Amino acid sequence: MNDSQKITHAIERLSLGARPGDRVQVEQMGVEAYIRQQLNPDLANEPASLTQRLSQLPLIELSPKELFKYNGVPKKPTNEERSAAKQRRIKVANQAVKARLLRALESRNQLHEVMVNFWFNHFNVYLKKGQVRLMIGSYEHMAIRPHALGKFRDLLGATAKHPAMLSYLDNWLNTSPNSRRGRKKKGGLNENYARELLELHSMGVDGGYTQADIENLTRILTGWSIAGGQGNSHESGFRFESNRHDPTDKVFLGQRIVSNGVEEGELALDLIARHPSTARFISHKLAQHFVADEPPATLVNRLSEQYLSSDGDIRVVLSTLFESDEFWSLEYYQQKFRTPYQYLFSMARAIGLASPPEETLGRLSGGLQNLSMPLYECRPPDGYAQTESAWLNADAMMRRTSFSTAVHKLKDDRPSMDALLATLGDQFSDNTLQVVKSSPKGIQPTLILGSPEMMYR
Questions:
Q1: What mean pLDDT do residues 377-406 have?
Q2: C-alpha to C-alpha distance for 174 and 221, rounded to whole angstroms
Q3: 283: buried, middle or exposed (CB in 10 Å: 19+, 13-18, 0-12)?
């Protein structure tokens, strides 16, 4: 890549799209310095306008304990009280959506926002199931954001214990028949979470574990539940219910685990996070996200080695990835097809949209719905697909082209064609530029936003 392409590549892969002025900033500070800055985000250094808007969304920072209290109803609620509680849950979820949209648009720590979206999708929970709507903001704020560039083990543990995940994948129902509660025939084993924990969250479907490992992990995690009722004393909303836990020893991934209550689960998560299959599965997903749908095996191998030697340090793995020859190969330049989420924000950021009014935030959220990727509404536990084959089709292209017109109208001071080209750099083909420049000035910006090149990053 030449110097101009490197600037484009770094911005496009480490952010949700270039904003006006980004290219000049990266050119002045240098690509390497930009990458170091993004790998070490200063989360206290955000635009005042973003901080001010986020301060108007206090529900996103409530702990699970505070959220259960906020949404509390009497033991025998009236219809009106049920309806009011439902509206409170909707209000929590709406504030979570607004916070995500505002940060994606305006945060200076774009790689952190990219990784928040990546890990939320990896540890997906579905907004409309169980306690998730009430907990969605807390899940992102407490379980995902603090660990997005930290140790994978911490991320794994935070998601495993959060009420949103415990509810979504049913582990709060997981009760051993050998436990005090199980012997009274109240509940039974539920292996939903244990299966997805291995298959989707860590080792991968071909990770080398057996059905017996899934069954034993299910027993290890019996009693990992939600503290949502009276007497909830922990801010995290997690509660270990010993009267539902399997009291016997287990064998998991070839290691004997002595019966030891909640600590069995912690030991299991340690084994999972440090397993070579997890290193490979996570490295492959990161390489797929940042390099190519089918990433080079040599790169995945190197990232796996870094994962294991750094005890699952996500920042170290990403640093290795961004320094690799594969990342900077011209073969992969502008070859990653944008998901609807990435496409929408690449346009909104390109026109310089910032701190938009409520109505505009609603249109952006509706746009994700229209492009088949509504925020927090992916039902399957494996999250939204991240590859071209899942999103490139004729209907999707029609919707994207139509939406590019709507996005350009979201601002009163709309950027001209020249302003957009200065923001987005020299990623457009001669053919695209010829078509745009030979078109009436009024539609030139929307032709750029809807161009084939804007579909890729």
A1: 92
A2: 7
A3: buried
